[in-house]
Amino acid sequence: MKNAFLLLCVFCMIATVSGQKKVKPPEPFGPLPTQKQVDWQEMEFYAFVHFSLNTFTNKEWGYGDESPELFNPTNLDVRQWARVVKEAGMKGIILVAKHHDGFCLWPSAYTQRSVKNSPWKNGKGDLVKELAAACKEYGLKLGLYLSPWDRNRADYGKPEYVTYFRNQLKELLSNYGDVFEMWFDGANGGDGYYGGANETRKINTLEYYKWDETYKLIYKIAPNTLVWGVGTSEARWIGNEEGRAGKTNWSLLRQRDELAGKVHYSEFMSGHEDGEKWVPGEADVSIRPGWFYHAIEDDKVRSLDEMVDIYYESIGRNATLLLNLPVDKRGLVHENDQARLKELVSTIKEDFKTDVLTATKISADNVRGNNAAFAAKKVSDRNKNTYWATDDNIKSASIVFEFNKPTPINRILLQEYIKLGQRVKAFNIEAKVDEKWISLAHETTIGYKRILRIDRVTASALKINIADSKASILISNIEAYNAPTFVRMPKILRDKNGNVTIKSQGENAIYYTIDGSNPTQKSILYKGVFQYKKAFEIKAFAIDAVENISSAVTTAKYGASKENWKILTASSGDLNSVNRIIDGNPNTDWSFGDNLNKLPQEITIDMGSILDINGFTYIPQQVGNNLNLISNYEFYSSLDNVEWILQSQGEFSNIKSNPIEQVKTFKKDKARYIRFVARSAVGKGATVSIAEINIIETL
Ligand code: FUL
């Protein structure tokens, strides 16, 4: 017996040394994703489409009283949307089937407020059906957004409305094939038409919709649909509409706390290290400032620099990227948006062209059970189901890649094997340059995917040190690239007195034009601040002289300088600093006095001369965490500071989630004086602030 035992042990040792012995895979650790969540995460990049009555009324939020007859696209072609999305490498489309104004893009049996009462296809169209077919044709997945808030329904706020909402959910989930994601927006309750009541209705989001029951209903019909946003959702908002995740980004959330109202949305950017549930982040952003199409934003499509940053700060930070394409009045993705998307895709493709780690010698200082199944080289085998693992008790370890010859790198991509949990808490990277190890980065989480952009180094070896992990380390993939040098677009700033400053990265030279033409190296070379007081458009680019690589072109448009502007009166607040709202700098702001009960408040400005104006913009406070935002306004103009004309009034829709420059236009008029009235505020801050007021001039 004793001999037999000894023999067995010897056999064990041999098996271990030769790597034959089977080593058990690591145990899962902490909250885990479901297969549905893993499949969803692997989609990485998918599109949003906002297209509805708002497209035709030029609004971001409809009030609920707009006529369905306004929905009249001339060239609607969902196959064009699908083609654009497919060509961009996105994996699906989430369509806003019903936004807050209650208009339905499908002929719902439960309301008259839908495409069936629009001129489009003589009321015989079904946009959800058409898009479902186009997605199928192009191999894309379909997702749907159904706004819980409905500013049209008379019964909103009563139990009947919840039944209506669920009936519509049933229609959407039963009649259009698989829906990969159901999107429930958080905007809820407020003023609206409500069947003619025209009043403000407040509801308790968590209680009113009885999400538990709604979830049961969804899963009964569509168990494979991932539910986003509210209640016990399976994915979370990233906490901003800028498409940016935190550098630290846990796919975990203390959802119980969240449902008890104890989590501020700013925490969504990073999730919770100690979250009890797997609730990964989805970064949503529009390719333009607004979610819906507005012709005035045709030249405000996000710049290439911004789009590239968004890619790296969403997908590169363990989130998925939901990119909105605001389909225009024709019913098409606009040419400018298509062009930007193409530029983004080709930049990203170039960045990730050749993984330089596949030809390296890979080793690690710890391998689970010393077994080949968990060897270091698994990080480079392009198999998402294999991974390098350490022994159970090993929570810090290093993996080294040795190159045949010194190799330039500036991108590093890492992935954990998330099916067994998100573990890494801290890691750092070193490169061997001229025989010396230098430090490249100190970071925190990895998760499903983490991509680092670093300054280019030419390394003979690369070392990744996992410095801290919740449990043993499981890394499924590591790649490195030498992306082409990306020259940043110059930043243009013009102050109140018309002084124009253009800044580029490092020593890069800048060329610009002021006649609307595209700048080249034959255009004006920027040599320092210059003054330009008239209304003008300036276009500039930067060039890296060493590599002869140009940036994309920055375009900025200015009205006449505010040199002669004066704030005449402010109804409250510190008058010494009030000029901040006309200083041309969106990063400085000014606040009315500290008492929201005393709204409305107003400021009156003398523009110094009579101008033709046809709109104004309000830039809300930009800097800080709890912004003091104005939600409803009035805007007046006057020729003599005695008689005033109300030019525009209404709401700054969605300003809470997306505090961007608010643009309001009206019929052209002559004015010397303007008055901006803050009627109501978002949230519970003590006051409201203004970063900048601009006018839109008719030239
Ligand atoms: C927001 C909504 O209020 C916007 O209108 C938009 O639909 C965006 C995606 O979500 O919170």
Describe this structure as you would to a colleague.
This protein has 699 residues and is of the alpha+beta class. The protein folds into four domains: 35-349, Alpha-Beta Barrel (TIM Barrel); 361-481, Jelly Rolls, CATH 2.60.120.260; 491-558; 566-697, Galactose-binding domain-like (Jelly Rolls, Sandwich). Helix content is 17%, strand content 32%. It is built from eleven helices and 35 strands. It has an eight-stranded parallel β-sheet. It is globular, with a radius of gyration of 28 Å. The termini are far apart. Residues 1-20 have low confidence and may be disordered. The site of beta-L-fucopyranose has 8 residues, from loops.
Task: Return the domain count.
Answer: 4
CATH topology title of the largest domain: TIM Barrel
**What overall geometry do the principal axes of the alpha carbons give?**
globular
Task: Quote the average pLDDT.
Answer: 94
The count of β-strands is: 35
Largest sheet properties = 8 strands, parallel
Low-pLDDT residue spans: 1-20
CATH class of the largest domain: Alpha Beta
Oligomer: single chain
Query: Which CATH architecture of the largest domain?
Result: Alpha-Beta Barrel
Backbone CA Rg: 28 Å
Each distinct ligand: beta-L-fucopyranose
Helix percent reads 10-25%
Question: Helix- and strand-based class?
Answer: alpha+beta
Task: Give the N-terminus to C-terminus distance in angstroms.
Answer: 101 Å
Q: Please identify which CATH superfamily of the largest domain we are dealing with.
A: Glycosidases
Strand content: 25-35%
Strand order of the largest sheet: 7-4-3-2-1-12-11-8
